[in-house]
Amino acid sequence: MRRRPLIVAGSFRTERPPNRKRYNSSVLRRWIFGLLIAALPCAAQLRERQEAPAELPANMQDEDEGVPKQTEYAFNPIQARKEFTIGDFYARRGNQRGAAGRYLEATRWDPNYAEAFWKLGRARQELDEREEAAKAYQKYLELEPEGKQSKEARKRLAELEKAGLEKKAKPDSAGKATSDVVSPSAQ
Questions:
Q1: HSE (CB half, 13 Å, CA atoms) of 150?
Q2: In the chain, what is the straight-line distance between the N-terminal and C-terminal CA atoms, in Å?
Q3: Residue 32, pLDDT above cutoff 50
Q4: Cβ(112)–Cβ(143) below 8 Å
Q5: Which of 137, 84, 141, 92 is nearest to 109 (CA)?
Q6: CA dist., res. 114 & res. 100, Å (int)
């Protein structure tokens, strides 16, 4: 068997092949530098917009732009159910303020939606809004006096009324409790 001789002189390669790693990193550096140079004017423009936002000319502004849109509520049980479902979602997540707002919307779309009043009362009681919770429980009992939660609603309403009377009884400077409510014997 014949072996091939090593070609030392007269090789086909006269130069070293380029180092791919070094080549790629230099190209990458150039691209990054170009992007940074292009981003500087954009950052300056963004800063200018944040400092002085563009205003529309007077002839292009709405006349009621600053006024919040008032919703006209008509009987719509489908929309009431949607609001109620969203309120349940907020309540499960622990956002009682959002839940109360959605339950209130549900009662506006359907004023006879007793379950929405029940949940509105619960949410407002969690928020320590006693008067509004009591109104919601009263409305629930008015709509469904023998409903599923009527016993619980009466219990919670009694607790709220008791808490309301305790809040009205304020201690005076001597430490005795004085009441804003005048007793019949004092008249």
A1: 8
A2: 133
A3: yes
A4: yes
A5: 84
A6: 14
Indicate the residue type of 135.
K
pTM (predicted TM-score): 0.55
Write out the chain in H/E/C secondary structure.
CCCCCCCCCCCCCCCCCCCHHHHHHHHHHHHHHHHHHHHHHHHHHHHHHHHCCCCCCHHHCCCCCCCCCCCCCCCCHHHHHHHHHHHHHHHHHCCHHHHHHHHHHHHHHCCCCHHHHHHHHHHHHHCCCHHHHHHHHHHHHHHCCCCCCHHHHHHHHHHHHHHHHHHHCEECCCCCEECCCCCHHHC
Nearest partner of 160 among 181, 139, 137, 183, judged by Cα:
137
pLDDT > 70? residue 157: yes
Domains in the chain (CATH in brackets) are 77-167 (1.25.40.10)
- Among 31-40, 54-63, 73-82, 154-163, which is the least confidently predicted range? 54-63
Structure tokens at 50: 């944040």
pLDDT tens per residue across span 42-88:
777 777 767 765 565 555 555 555 556 677 889 999 999 999 999 99
CA dist., res. 140 & res. 76, Å (int): 19
Residue type for position 157: L
